[in-house]
Amino acid sequence: MTPKSFVSALAAANLPSVFNPWRDRCSIHDRRDAAARRRANLEGVIAAALDARVETIWIARDLGYRGGRRTGVPLTDEVHLTHAAALMGGIPLERATEGPVIAERTAAIVWQVLSRIGQPVMLWNVFPFHPHEPDDPMSNRCHTRAEREATWPLLQALVSMLQPKHIVAIGRDAHLALDGLDIPTTAIRHPSYGGQREFIDGMFDLYGIADTSRAPELPLEPRYATTATCALA
Hints:
Blueprint: H1 3-11, E1 18-19, H2 34-52, E2 56-62, H3 68-71, H4 81-87, H5 105-117, E3 122-127, E4 130-131, H6 145-162, E5 166-170, H7 172-177, E6 185-188, H8 196-207
């Protein structure tokens, strides 16, 4: 599989109460060619990951409505789109939305760490799309087991294409879901729900980076202000 054929396979998926950023267009925030821009963004990131021979994939649970849903790049909001472009070798990445640039707390912490690590990794999600409540497209919900099983071949295809030596599971839900992959996996606390410090410390320990700064905790976004976890089994 190639980056282009992989992104085409992603774009073909259509599930209820799920926003597919490489297929769908948000009538409120998106430019007219938003889906095409996001396809180009992701295809460029995967091609750059192949060129860089990335050895690690960081995998969280789902796309968030303030991050990858808008950019087409997992764990990356619009504020950090230029950071992603630079880390992946100066590739072109374009905004797909109109209006103010939107930030996502999780993406901010992820990119705070990546800026210190300074080496390209592939960012992904167990469930590659944005699952939302049926009547609220700008909400986040946990994907279901059926949704995960329906899209599992896409994750397997990405892993087969990149052939990473290591996977970092971001959060307990992602770690449990990735149990079926026969690749060494390290579990790191998700930065949301009060886990920012543990996430940063865990990543710095994994990459052998001495943390000389104690960054302040970022405030929770309204949609993330909960301690509930998902039951995917």
